[in-house]
Amino acid sequence: MFLTRMALDVNRAETQHFLAAPDALHPLVQAAGGSPGQRCLWRFDTIRHRTYLLMVSRCRPDMLELHERCGIAGAFPSWETQDYDEVLEQAEEGTVWAFRLCAGVEALPATEAQVHQRLRELTLRSDALRRDWLLERAARFGFACPADCPTVLHSGLLVLHPGRPGRAVLFHQVWYDGLLTVLDGSRFRETLLGGIGFGRGFGMGLMTIEPPDGIRRI
């Protein structure tokens, strides 16, 4: 397995299109790192005011087309790839890890009225309720979090296929950060490869881990 991070040029029109419509980016991500019958998990990350594409793939990805279409033109390569198997092999029962996750916690058929209604509802929803969504499901994914963890970084709504009756889908996205303890190594590794929640083909579901020493290695 490989973990890849590519810096995005948010001033490019095509990058802005991908950020607003991640379903348009999905085929490029699959072409870069996918294999037949295997879906790549990926997400957008913002770190120190810079936006990145982060992806996990079963084979070393070919990032050239992604770089040409939304990477930073003056920085080649604008990505770095690491062997993720080394991390996965260490994710045994009882180990503690820092993690980040972008999860689709809800997926609903979307109409214009539903979007406006959900926006009103979400303004009233507390971070505690968003945190409970993950805490209630953690054990089935092979890990546990402290009661006061994770931190909800931010949340929002994403509508895919807007204006297409019968196909539009409304996702509620939540970004989490925190610490976890592995309960079941095999199940947890499946979670890291298979994802959590809805929208796992469209920039949601990817959980990444690293040692809890405060050092961001990728």
Structural class: alpha+beta
> How widely separated are the two ends?
15 Å
Q: What portion of residues is helical?
A: 25-40%
SSE string: EHHEEHEHEHHEEEHE
Biggest pleated sheet: 5 strands, antiparallel
Low-confidence regions: none
Strand content: 25-35%
Description:
By secondary structure, the protein is of the alpha+beta class. The mean pLDDT is 86. The protein is globular. Strands 5, 6, 7, 8 and 9 form a five-stranded antiparallel β-sheet that branches. The chain has helices spanning 13-20, 22-33, 64-70, 85-90, 112-124, 127-135, 185-194, and strands spanning 2-7, 41-47, 50-57, 79-83, 96-109, 143-144, 151-160, 169-182, 207-210. A hairpin with an 8-residue loop joins strand 7 (151-160) and strand 8. It contains seven helices and nine strands.
Question: Which descriptors would you attach to this protein?
Answer:
218 residues; alpha+beta; five-stranded antiparallel beta sheet; four-stranded antiparallel beta sheet; 7 helices; 9 strands; 30% helix; globular
